Structure formats: structure tokens, C-alpha cells
User: Which sequence fits this backbone?
């Protein structure tokens, strides 16, 4: 990679000869502005920066073009003694931090999974930070608590989940899975977690943190959990099924897995962190067949539902089990019984919680069902087009059936070739893709679904892949398999 320093690299290090506080300073003294006046003075600058960033993000290198430690070397060793201006903060954001940012909002960001913010959510995030409520009890923020429950009910309806389930917002899918594992272990008294070879690593990580045993079952040729290998689950606390696996977007047979869990009293947790948002479109609901039999389900709104990090939606049909696992009320937290039932801290590992529901509420209101459906369908349409290009090209092949917005593919030239090809594409700064391993072979992944992505961006990344593949094939050793 290039060092990505650009013309601003020779600018003075922040903190060196730092200017004295200006008239807008927050440092104590006669010239200090109130928080309200500071926002009036600099809020428009921050909004303008955000708007300009989204306008120009497509012109920036997608993957940060820096080396490890390069950013740290350009930052001071300690915080300033005296407050600096907000203009200085924005200047350093542009000159120092931005070159070290990997741009998830870039129209040619295709790695891992889509994680898009949106204008309503950006503004709502600012408002949540302004209120800065800490929702550990109903009375500590009735609005935070009740809005979270309401938007979780709205989202459940949009995704076709059963009515009446308890819903709460966690920071991420890993925390949601950990929450389910804790409740399942407490409820069953068992110490085993069962998952497939394609299950997200957060399941094994949860088991490791809890000291639980993990049993991994195999998958069929499409990457779906083999129900026949579940066997006797009488010693199992939790089974994790996936709707949209990380590697290839496969969908486990949830209904059959649920039947096995119910026969043996095991908790079924459905990880739909990536693909769950697609259920807003009825044509994808086939993937949720049997989900009504689950004990818990997680969908990450911060992946494909236009809501910024962190906003992971966790539903459970067994809220009493969650409460039994997590309820621990210190004296200073005791409130009248009428309020206790509303305390979301009673249903998960966190005590304090942010006003995350505000940004999801803004997204659901400003986009509505139709807007979300249009967003999902556009991402799927572009992924389908890309998959067609791959399938029709003689030197390329699809490595797995396309599900949702995820395309898994490879060049036919072999393992080393695909590894080097991915590095060349990502180092170019024009696009960013990730990889997986399917049938023991290195495979490229393209995850479509970006809010700013257009057909032109899809064409550009396909042209980039072909161009870099041709250049690599002509390089010494480029055709090695």
C-alpha cells in the first residue's frame, strides 16, 4: 500500500505550538461559551462536514491506505493542557484521521457486510447524544425505555416475527448471542452449546467466556447445518441456527432444528444478524420458515437497515428466562413494582443503555416499510447482476449459490492467484472486498447493499477485478495454482 500521507502529511503535529483558546473555547474563564452557544456556533460546521463527507466519500480510497502505527505516530502523547478550538478538531479529522479511515459508507465497500448509516439516523444519533440518557431503569428515562419496546414491536411486525415477543436493543450480535447463551444455561442447567461449522465465531466465543463446551456439527454442500448430526440434545443448553451465514449467506433449516431442540429441551437461538433485515421483503420470508419456534432471534439493524452502529435487535419468546438470568437489583436501583417490569436492564447483561431506539425510530419513520424494501431489493438486484457477470465469464466461477446480497466467487487460476488478486484489488483503493473459505478453497466475497452504491459502481468493481486478474496472470508466477 502507499503511505497515504498526501500533501497534508507535512503539516505540524497537533499539539505542537497549539493555539491559545479562542473566543469559542470551553475552558473555564470569562470567554467560555455555554454548551448551547457552542453548538450554535459549531453545529453547522459539523453537519456540513458530515454532508460533505457523504457527498465525496466515493472519491476516497475505500480501504485505509496506511500502515499499522502510522496514525499513532502523528498524534500527541498526551491531551492538551488548554482547550483548543473546534475548528482545530475538524482540521485534524480531515488531515490526520481521515486517511486512516476505512470508508464503510463508500459506494464500493463490498467487504464483510453492508453497514450503512442514513441521514435521519445521523441526526437522531446527535439528538441521542444531546439527551445522553442512561436507561438502566424506567424512571431513569421513561422515553428511552418505552420507545425501545415500541420500535422493537414495529421492527418485529416489519420482519414478520410473531407478535408478543419481548424485544430489546443490544450493542451487537455477539452480545445478543451471549445473552441467549447465559439465559439458556441458567434455564436448562446444562453446559453445552451446539452450532455448525458455518456458525459465526461469536457463538464459540460466548461459550468460551461462559466455560461451556462446544460441539460443532457438519454442513451440507450448500453450507446448511445437517440436522441429522444434531443427535441427542438432552445435554445441550443452546443450539445456534443461522439465517444468512457469514461465509456464504446460507440458511439453516430452522424448523427442523427447532423440532430437535423442543424434543430435548434445548434453547434455539437464531442468528439472523446479516440477512434478517431482508425479511422486510415478503419474497425473502422463506428464510424465516420455522423462526416462530425459536427461543431468541437477533437481527442487526446496523447491518442492512440504514441504522448506524450500534443497534442489534434481540427478540425472545421467553422473557421470563431472560429476567431470571439477569435480574439482580441493588438497593439503590429498587423502584415500585409497577416500574420494575419495565426495566430493560433486567433482561440482559448491561445495566446502563444508550438511547439507541431514537435512531431506529427515525429510520423507520423516515423510510417506512416501502423505503426499506426498496433499499433491500436494490442491493439484492445488484448482487444478482454481479453474479451473472461472474457466471458468464470463462475465467471465473461462482463458489456458492447467491443468497440475498452476498456473492461468493473466485478466479479459476487457483489458490495463490485468488489471494494475490484480492490483495491487489483492496490495495488499489478503488474497492474493498473480503474473503472466506468454501470447500477448502480461498473464495472472494462481495456483499452488496450500500446505500450509495450504483450500477456504475458494480461495473467498476467487476472491471477492476478483471483488470487486476489480467495483470496478475502476466506477472512472473501469476498463474501458479
Assistant:
Amino acid at each position: 500500500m502507499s503511505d497515504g500521507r498526501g500533501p497534508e502529511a507535512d503539516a505540524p503535529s497537533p499539539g505542537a505550538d497549539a493555539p491559545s483558546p479562542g473566543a469559542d473555547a470551553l475552558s473555564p474563564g470569562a470567554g467560555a461559551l455555554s454548551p448551547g452557544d457552542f453548538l450554535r456556533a459549531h453545529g453547522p460546521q459539523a453537519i456540513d462536514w458530515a454532508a460533505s463527507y457523504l457527498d465525496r466519500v466515493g472519491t476516497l480510497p475505500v480501504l485505509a491506505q496506511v500502515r499499522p502505527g502510522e496514525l499513532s505516530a502523528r498524534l500527541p502523547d498526551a491531551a492538551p493542557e488548554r482547550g483548543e478550538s473546534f475548528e482545530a478538531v475538524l482540521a485534524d479529522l480531515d488531515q490526520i484521521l481521515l486517511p486512516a479511515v476505512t470508508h464503510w459508507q463508500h459506494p464500493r465497500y463490498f467487504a464483510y457486510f453492508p453497514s450503512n448509516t442514513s441521514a435521519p439516523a445521523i441526526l437522531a444519533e446527535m439528538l441521542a447524544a444531546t439527551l445522553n440518557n442512561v436507561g438502566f431503569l424506567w424512571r431513569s428515562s421513561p422515553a428511552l425505555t418505552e420507545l425501545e419496546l415500541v420500535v422493537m414491536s414495529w421492527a418485529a411486525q416489519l420482519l414478520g416475527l410473531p407478535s408478543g415477543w419481548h424485544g430489546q436493543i443490544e450493542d451487537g450480535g455477539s452480545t445478543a448471542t451471549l445473552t441467549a447463551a447465559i439465559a439458556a444455561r441458567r434455564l436448562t442447567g446444562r453446559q453445552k452449546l451446539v452450532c455448525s461449522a458455518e456458525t459465526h465465531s461469536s457463538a464459540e466465543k460466548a461459550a468460551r467466556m461462559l466455560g461451556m463446551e462446544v460441539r460443532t456439527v457438519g454442513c451440507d454442500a450448500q453450507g446448511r447445518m445437517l440436522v441429522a448430526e444434531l443427535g441427542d440434545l438432552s445435554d445441550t443448553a443452546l443450539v445456534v441456527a443461522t439465517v444468512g451465514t457469514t461465509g456464504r449467506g446460507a440458511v439453516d433449516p430452522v424448523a427442523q432444528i427447532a423440532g430437535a431442540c423442543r424434543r430435548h429441551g434445548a434453547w434455539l437461538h437464531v442468528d439472523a444478524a446479516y440477512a434478517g433485515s431482508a425479511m422486510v421483503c415478503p419474497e425473502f420470508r422463506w428464510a424465516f420458515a420455522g423462526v416462530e419456534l425459536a427461543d431468541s432471534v437477533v437481527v442487526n439493524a446496523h447491518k442492512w437497515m440504514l441504522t448506524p452502529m450500534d443497534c442489534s435487535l434481540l427478540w425472545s419468546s421467553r422473557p421470563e428466562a431472560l429476567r431470571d438470568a439477569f435480574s439482580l437489583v441493588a438497593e439503590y436501583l429498587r423502584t415500585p413494582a409497577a416500574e420494575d417490569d419495565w426495566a430493560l436492564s433486567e433482561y440482559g447483561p448491561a445495566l446502563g443503555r444508550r438511547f439507541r431506539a431514537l435512531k431506529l425510530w427515525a429510520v423507520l419513520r423516515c423510510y417506512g416499510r416501502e423505503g426499506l424494501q426498496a433499499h433491500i431489493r436494490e442491493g439484492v438486484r445488484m448482487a444478482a447482476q454481479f453474479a451473472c457477470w461472474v457466471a458468464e465469464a470463462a475465467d471465473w466461477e461462482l463458489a456458492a449459490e447467491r443468497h440475498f446480497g452476498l456473492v461468493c466467487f473466485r478466479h479459476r487460476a487457483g489458490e495463490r492467484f485468488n489471494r494475490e488478486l484480492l490483495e491487489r484489488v483492496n490495495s488499489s483503493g478503488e474497492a474493498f472486498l473480503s474473503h472466506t473459505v468454501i470447500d477448502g478453497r480461498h473464495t472472494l466475497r462481495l456483499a452488496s447493499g450500500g446505500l450509495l452504491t450504483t450500477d456504475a459502481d458494480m461495473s467498476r468493481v467487476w472491471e477492476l477485478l478483471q483488470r487486476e486478474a489480467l495483470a496478475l496472470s502476466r506477472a512472473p508466477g501469476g498463474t501458479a495454482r
Q: What stands out?
A: The two ends are 24 Å apart (CA to CA). Residues 1-23 have pLDDT under 50 and may be disordered. The longest strand covers residues 441-447.
